[in-house]
Amino acid sequence: MVPSFKNAAVIVLGCLLVAGVALGQSGGSRSGGHAAAEQAVTKLEQEWLALQTTHEWGKLLRFVADDFILVESEGKIRDRDVMIKEYKDDSPNTISVKMVYLAVHAAADNVVLATGQDDITFKDKTGKSAHRFERFTDTWVLREGHWLCVAEQIVVIYP
């Protein structure tokens, strides 16, 4: 089931509120002792990218939360299952996916924001190779000892 815009907005605003409160409590300092959290999420972001290229969709379920919300560039709101279905549908035309930028920032011991840029090479309708550049922001939360991505927003950019 695709979540309603109102539910998605509440979840995204809730994530931003949690991150804002956590930043306020930590003084916004990067030296707050969150290096382990940032390293864990960096590794998961890289694994997510690798799974997109190896098409091991089921493994995404380990670290993409069941209540995950995706806000796509054109404003569409998706859940985890629809996102994975779209990955599968796009995979025959996807040549490569490369992360060209990634920055992670732990707002607290249990909240990490990851911002990055992907360069996606794909076959267009004529069969020619083309590129799509996507900037993303992922919100990760530590739940029961496991890092889970709970929200992602994607924006298509034109470098």
Q: Which secondary structure elements does this structure contain, and how are they paired or packed?
A:
Layout: H1 5-26, H2 35-54, E1 64-71, E2 77-79, H3 80-90, E3 94-108, E4 111-123, E5 129-143, E6 146-157
How would you sum up this structure, described in words?
- This protein has 159 residues and is α+β, with helices and mostly antiparallel strands.
- It has one domain (5-157): Roll (Nuclear Transport Factor 2, Chain: A), CATH 3.10.450.50.
- The chain contains three helices and six strands, in the order ααββαββββ.
- Strands 2-1-6-5-4-3 form a six-stranded mixed β-sheet, with helices on both faces.
- β3 (94-108) and β4 (111-123) form a beta hairpin.
- The longest helix has 22 residues, at 5-26.
- The radius of gyration is 16 Å and the shape is globular.
- The N and C termini lie far apart (34 Å).
- The model is unreliable at 8-31 (pLDDT under 50).
Class per helix and strand makeup: alpha+beta
Count of extended strands: 6
Helix % is 25-40%
Order of helices and strands: HHEEHEEEE
Beta-strand content bin: 35-45%
Q: CATH topology, which one?
A: Nuclear Transport Factor 2, Chain: A
What value does the average pLDDT take?
Answer: 84
> Rough shape?
globular
List keywords for this structure.
159 residues; alpha+beta; Nuclear Transport Factor 2, Chain: A; six-stranded mixed β-sheet; 6 strands; globular
Task: Please sum up the structure shown.
With 159 residues, this protein is of the alpha+beta class. It has helices spanning 5-26, 35-54, 80-90; strands at residues 64-71, 77-79, 94-108, 111-123, 129-143, 146-157.
